[in-house]
Amino acid sequence: MALDAQLNSLGFAKPPAQTRVVVAMSGGVDSSVVAAELATQGYDVVGVTLQLYDHGAALAKKGACCAGRDIHDARRVAEAMGFPHYVLDYENTFREAVIDEFADSYLAGATPVPCIRCNERVKFKDLLETAKDLDADCMATGHYIQRRMGPAGAELHAAADPVRDQSYFLFSTTPDQLDYLRFPLGHLATKAETRALAQRHGLMVADKPDSQDICFVPNGDYASVIEKLRPGAADPGEIVHADGRVLGQHRGVIHYTVGQRRGLGIGGLTDPLYVVKLDVENRRVVVGPKEMLATRIVPVREINWLGDEPFTSRGEWNLGVKVRSTRPPREAVIRPLSETEAEVELIVAEEGVSPGQACVFYAGEGSRIFGGGWIHRG
Question: What is this structure's pTM?
Answer without folding.
Answer: 0.88
